[in-house]
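ingest -> validate -> predict -> emit
validate: passed (alphabet ok, no gaps, 467 aa)
predict: started
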Amino acid sequence: MNITFHGAARNVTGSKHLIRLKDDTSILLDCGMFQGMGEQSEDLNEHFGFNPKKVDYMILSHAHIDHCGLIPRLVAEGFNGPIFCTSATMDLARILLMDSAHIQMQDVAYSNKHRARKGQPLLEPLYTDEQAMTALRLFKIVEYNQEHEITPRVKFKFTDAGHILGSAAVHVSILEDGKLTNITFSGDVGRYDDMLLNDPQTFDQADYILLESTYGDSLHKDLGPIEDALLEIIKQTCEVKKGKVIIPAFSVGRTQELLYALNALELRGVLPDLPYYVDSPLSQKATEVLMNHPEVYNKDVKEVLKTDPNPFGFKGLRFIQSTEESIALNNDVRPCVIISSSGMAEAGRVKHHIKNNINSDKNTILMVGYCEPNSLGGHLLAGDHEVYIYGELYKVNAEVKSIRSMSAHGDYEDLLHFLACQDPALVKKIFLVHGEYEVQQHFSEKLKAKGFNHIEIPYQHQRIELD
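emit:
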């Protein structure tokens, strides 16, 4: 038996881990898209490093695009097995993959106009909306804590990872040569005491663990209560400086957390009387999906629901749909708050909002999650005084703020808490995935201090034999 790491290996995107048994049965854990890595992303997304036709089964941890975004291409290149996920993940993946396909087709159509004029060969999208629909037909629902038999020798179950709606850690049990091997893939691990979701669940003893490590050297406890931090930034920017707050936020998870926090401020009677825009049609759909899955809410949210049937809605909130409405926001000089995707500010409508507001020191760009260092959001967080947006250089006159504690990824204390249910002496090896290499090296030392002495940080396409 071996496992090959075809993505999220010494970086944070493109999650793909392929388990191959002695009889050549192959199980793919996630099939994510590489994001925020510039031209390198394009090449990585076009070449899997394995033959999709030879993959028998796929298990999906959650619906973020860096974990599911290449599933349509996988299917288009010959995979036709079942794709197992939770029901909430299926609901989210449906809207995210269709949106992703639309973006692929739109971007290629735009590029091909220019290429045609220059006589250059035309490009093909990574996948089309029709291919995304074909892939979605392969999805099969397995709910949390239900053992599911893939073959007589391979079983798995999901436990709640507390990261986003439907997110799961994956626990695979494989019987080979009369020996049982238990492999846990963490997916992405959420925060304990999260604003919206249940805590990550405990899980049975594992022999091998594939553990995400995005924030393996960080703590998120630096800015106090999120609501108060948001309120201070909005009041200073919109009421004192008469500017705009631009918040790049992922459509799934982060946007809903922001809306919940703003709604809480209104319930307290302190939310400034301003226009609040969510400029992302996908965010509205994702919010509706979350409303349809109250089983994932923690006890605090369930308590709020007793008196407030919509914890994501408040006075002044408006969802922007059309491109024309989005463009009109840039011509409106009134103070306001604009929440828009993508979270790394690397694409989508938020990039236009940043471009149109970055020159004024009245405005604030508020980052509320992880950004790949080479993304626009990464450069802003690094304190760059000038950034390139759509090929043009802009001075960063707007104030750049961050609320690191809003990350949906657990910090190193959360990750260690996640592992607390394990006996370190019985874990043969932990593979650190989904993290920057330097961060993983630091986190490796923290794991060793807890008794996990066998740590490996696999590189891209590395194959490792399991005992």
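The mean pLDDT is 94.
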